Amino acid sequence: MPRQDKTGPLGQGPLTGRGLGPCNGGRSRGSGMGRGFGWRARSMQIMPIQQPTVITKKQEKQFLEQNLNALKEEIKETEERLKEFKK
After folding, report:
1. Which residues of 35-56 are buried (b: 16+ CB within 10 A; e: fewer)?
2. Which of 75, 72, 71, 70 shows the shortest CA–CA distance to 83?
3. What is the CA angle 67-76-63, rounded to 5?
4. What is the mean pLDDT of each run of 10 residues along the chain (87 residues)?
5. Is residue 22 within 8 Å of residue 14, measured between CB atoms?
6. Close Cβ partners of 10 (under 8 Å, ≥ 6 residues apart)
7. Half-sphere exposure of 26 (CA within 13 A, CB side)
8. Predicted TM-score (pTM) of this structure
């Protein structure tokens, strides 16, 4: 609260800031459970660890073929769109 006029940090009224100024009535976030590194550190402790996915050569080949076909289709559509501009 820059001017100590109880309008909040951007003049939008009380309770619009982070509660760090002298008008918060002694309330504080404490224990790091608000926004910031403390919360992320705690949430990382409860997240399950994802095991790497192993795919077979057949699955990889199928994926690559699908990807190639999608790219060819995109190239075809792009060329058609460019032809429209040349008309």
Report:
1. eeeeeeeeeeeeeeeeeeeeee
2. 75
3. 5
4. 65 67 55 53 64 89 96 96 90
5. no
6. 16
7. 0
8. 0.39
